[in-house]
Amino acid sequence: MTNVIFLHEPALSAAEFTDVLQRSGLAERRPVANPDRIERMLLNADLLITARLRGQLIGVARALTDFSYACYLSDLAVDKTHQRLGRELLARTHAAAGPDTTLILLAAPAAVDYYPHLGMTNHPSCWTLPGTARSPTLPATGL
């Protein structure tokens, strides 16, 4: 990790974010073909912690948090050639969100064995409801 610079980078560009998603392997589960949606994902994130090597983005942690109780780490993307950065991005994200927050993430299938090594525990009662972009048959709520 020598010479890697970690930053809080709220103005991260959609192009750089998409590029690191592709180099990390997360692009297959993110809407990278929809730049407007990627832009909204960045604009509405509470925390964007980046890792750069000689100016190039090589890792990013994107999180939503109340800075008090919970921090949802929605993306932890690290260029496949720099995989050792995940632990540091996770630690810096947790520190920025606040020491009293619980860090929450949904692991990519290929990464389920990675997070226990970082001290994270599996939570058996997580539930998801897909957005309408992925589930067009979801009934309207009438709200």
Jot down its keywords.
5 strands, five-stranded mixed beta sheet, 24% strand, 3 helices, 143 residues, globular, Aminopeptidase, alpha+beta
Q: How would you describe this protein?
A:
The protein is of the alpha+beta class and 143 residues long. It has one domain: Gcn5-related N-acetyltransferase (GNAT) (Aminopeptidase). Helix content is 22%, strand content 24%. It has helices at 14-24, 35-43, 86-97; strands at 4-8, 47-53, 56-65, 70-78, 102-104. It has a five-stranded mixed sheet. The chain starts with a strand and ends in a 39-residue tail after the last strand. The model has no long low-confidence stretch (mean pLDDT 89).
Summarize this structure briefly.
The chain is α+β, with helices and mostly antiparallel strands and 143 residues long. The chain has helices at 14-24, 35-43, 86-97, and strands at residues 4-8, 47-53, 56-65, 70-78, 102-104. The chain has a five-stranded mixed beta sheet with strand order 1-2-3-4-5.
